[in-house]
Amino acid sequence: xxxxxxxxxxxxxxxxxxxxxxxxxxxxxxxxxxxxxxxxxxxxxxxxxxxxxxxxxxxxxxxxxxxxxxxxxxxxxxxxxxxxxxxxxxxxxxxxxxxxxxxxxxxxxxxxxxxxxxxxxxxxxxxxx
Length: 129
Known about the structure:
Blueprint: H1 2-13, H2 17-23, H3 30-36, H4 44-53, H5 59-64, H6 82-123
Helix pairs in contact: 2-3
C-alpha cells in the first residue's frame, strides 16, 4: 500500500508530516495526512513532487514497493533511466485518461440535465433566455 510506503519514507527522512508537506509546496499537511490514513490516494502530481523534492527516492519503490527505498549513488539506477521516464509518462497518461473520462461523464450528465430543464420549461410555456 502506497500510504504505508509514504509513512516509511517520512519516518526515514526523520521529518514531520508538516515539514514533508512544505517540501512539496503545500502550506498545510492535510492532504498528506489524508493520504497516510487512506482517505485519499496520491495523485500523479503529488508523486512527482515527492520525487523532485527527494531525488534520492527510488520511484519504483514508491509506486510499487519494488527495490530499495533510496537509490544508491554508485549504481546505474541512480540516474533516471529511459524506461523509468517511459513508466512516468505512461502513468501520467493513465491519470489524464481517467480525468478525461470523469470530465466527459460529468459533461454528459450536465447536458442531460440541461435537456431535461429545457424540456420542462417548454412544456410549461416558460419563456426561454
